[in-house]
């Protein structure tokens, strides 16, 4: 049985590990968090993703998945640790470097390493450089020759493209880009991914793969920024932005995204900076989009504060805290930023309604002015109702009740 070592058991690594362990591979998963390792080994995922609990439980029970703090010798290494940015928006690749150091001792000729993490252009070459330094007995860079075959290892960037909430489906169904450090590496990675991916496997070089993945997330950021800017224009011209976008999207070649309270999640808020940092003069639109989307929560908070000022002792129900629909994932959540801003501004008493959370996050939990309540309580008690996240749970809110309140709908859900 082919042995796979997955480094980083987070939002991408754990679903990958679970999927592979249920597809005929033996998977050794590695994470530097003891609690994560223990939770997985007890048969439970530490993250919420539809279907993941069943996969992890089955894999642990049938012995095809085990989690540990350190890597072991394997046939394929999949790096799925996070890439970061600093407070000044500079790339921080420390987790990737640590992962490479951790596997270096175990590498053997014939091994394949794939990098799933979204990274700045040139990172795959950097990894090859680090490995060459750490393991001078192995060959990774040069185009493989028959003479070097017994020393060769293979490296490819295969950026993940899955949407949180649909990860298990998209891991199998989406087309994948495979950027080999050389042609044979790309081919080896393609053969490996063919074993569990149903979508097309598109071969290219590592730099093209890196920039393609960044471009995909920039596309979404820029398009959402356009939608947010259109909402400012619509306010100015007295037009409904929701109707405008709906009508415009009837054009066969127009696909404007939706405005909202801002852009959250760990990917779109970070990835454009990898391009802006490397090529500031060539990424004017990308930077502007990031700024438009980044400022959006401040704008929404200011509007809420203005409306709240019309009430004596206003009670504000904020519907949703997650970074997007149907998740309680708070990473870079614009809804959370808005609630925090309202607290700083003393805008009123805040009732948070978040059906995906059992308690408030630490940053809000100690505040007297903020309380987690259920939807019914929130709707009844509030003077102002602020729709921040388009969760399914908010779909059937009684419109008659909304008419009696001040409402700000940042997602166009109450139309
Ligand atoms: N949002 C809007 N308006 C829209 C669409 C989204 O305001 O029209 C907001 C969401 O509410 C959320 C944020 O944007 O706050 C990001 O949500 P998302 O669903 O667009 O993306 P993520 O961050 O969950 O996942 C993205 C995906 N990238 C693309 O769709 C191009 C996913 O495919 C990537 O794999 C993932 O980033 C990643 O890891 O890079």
Give the CA-CA distance, first to last residue.
55 Å
Order of helices and strands: EHEHHEEEEHEHEHEHEHHHHEHEHEHEHE
Say which CATH homologous superfamily of the largest domain is assigned: NAD(P)-binding Rossmann-like Domain
Overall pLDDT confidence = 96
Radius of gyration: 24 Å
The count of β-strands is 15
The portion of residues assigned to helices is 40-55%
The strand order across the widest sheet is: 3-2-1-4-7-8-9-10
Characterize the structure shown.
The protein is of the alpha/beta class and 415 residues long. It has helices spanning 13-21, 34-41, 52-61, 94-104, 123-134, 167-173, 183-194, 206-237, 241-248, 271-278, 284-308, 334-344, 362-365, 375-381, 399-403, and strands spanning 3-7, 26-30, 65-68, 76-79, 84-85, 91-92, 112-115, 154-157, 176-180, 201-205, 315-319, 349-353, 370-372, 384-387, 406-409. The radius of gyration is 24 Å and the shape is globular. The protein starts with a strand and ends in a 6-residue tail after the last strand. The mean pLDDT is 96. The structure holds ligand SAJ.
What key phrases describe this protein's structure?
Rossmann fold; 2 domains; alpha/beta; binds ligand SAJ; 15 strands; 5-stranded parallel sheet; 8-stranded mixed sheet
Topology diagram in text:
Blueprint: E1 3-7, H1 13-21, E2 26-30, H2 34-41, H3 52-61, E3 65-68, E4 76-79, E5 84-85, E6 91-92, H4 94-104, E7 112-115, H5 123-134, E8 154-157, H6 167-173, E9 176-180, H7 183-194, E10 201-205, H8 206-237, H9 241-248, H10 271-278, H11 284-308, E11 315-319, H12 334-344, E12 349-353, H13 362-365, E13 370-372, H14 375-381, E14 384-387, H15 399-403, E15 406-409
Parallel strand pairs: 1-2, 1-4, 2-3, 4-7, 7-8, 9-10, 11-12, 11-14, 12-13, 14-15
Antiparallel strand pairs: 5-6, 8-9
The structure holds ligand SAJ.
């Amino acid at each position: 049985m082919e042995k796979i070592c997955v480094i980083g058991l987070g939002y991408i690594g754990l679903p990958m590990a679970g999927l592979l362990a249920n597809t005929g591979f033996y998977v050794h998963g590695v994470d530097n968090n003891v609690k994560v390792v223990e939770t997985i080994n007890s048969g439970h995922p530490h993250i919420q993703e539809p279907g993941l609990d069943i996969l992890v439980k089955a894999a642990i029970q049938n012995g095809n998945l085990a989690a540990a703090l350190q890597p072991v010798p394997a046939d394929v290494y999949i790096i799925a640790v996070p890439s970061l940015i600093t407070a000044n928006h500079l790339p921080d690749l420390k987790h990737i470097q640590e992962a490479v150091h951790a596997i270096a001792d175990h590498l053997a000729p014939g091994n394949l390493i794939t990098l799933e993490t979204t990274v700045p252009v040139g990172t795959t070459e950097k990894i090859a450089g680090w490995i060459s330094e750490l393991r001078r007995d192995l060959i990774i860079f040069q185009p493989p020759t028959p003479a070097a075959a017994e020393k060769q290892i293979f490296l490819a960037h295969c950026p993940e493209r899955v949407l949180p909430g649909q990860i298990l489906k998209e891991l199998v169904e989406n087309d994948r880009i495979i950027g080999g450090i050389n042609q044979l590496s790309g081919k080896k990675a393609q053969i490996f991914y063919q074993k569990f991916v149903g979508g097309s496997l598109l071969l290219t070089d590592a730099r093209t793969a890196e920039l393609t993945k960044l471009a995909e997330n920039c596309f979404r950021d820029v398009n959402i920024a356009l939608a947010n800017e259109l909402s400012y224009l619509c306010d100015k011209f007295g037009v409904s932005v929701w109707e405008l976008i709906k009508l415009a999207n009837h054009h066969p070649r127009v696909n404007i995204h939706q405005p909202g309270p801002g852009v959250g999640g760990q990917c779109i808020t970070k990835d454009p900076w990898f391009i802006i940092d490397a090529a500031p003069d060539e990424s004017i639109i990308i930077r502007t989009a990031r700024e438009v989307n980044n400022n959006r929560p401040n704008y929404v908070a200011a509007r809420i504060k203005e409306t709240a000022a019309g009430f004596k002792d206003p009670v504000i129900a904020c519907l949703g805290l997650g970074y997007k629909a149907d998740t309680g994932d708070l990473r870079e959540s614009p809804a959370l930023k808005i609630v925090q801003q309202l607290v700083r501004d003393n805008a009123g008493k805040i009732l948070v309604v978040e059906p995906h959370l059992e308690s408030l996050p630490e940053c809000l939990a100690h505040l007297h002015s903020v309380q987690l309540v259920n939807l019914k309580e929130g709707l009844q008690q509030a003077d102002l109702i602020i729709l921040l996240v388009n969760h399914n749970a908010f779909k059937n809110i009684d419109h008659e009740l909304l008419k009696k309140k001040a409402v700000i709908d940042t997602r166009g859900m109450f139309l």
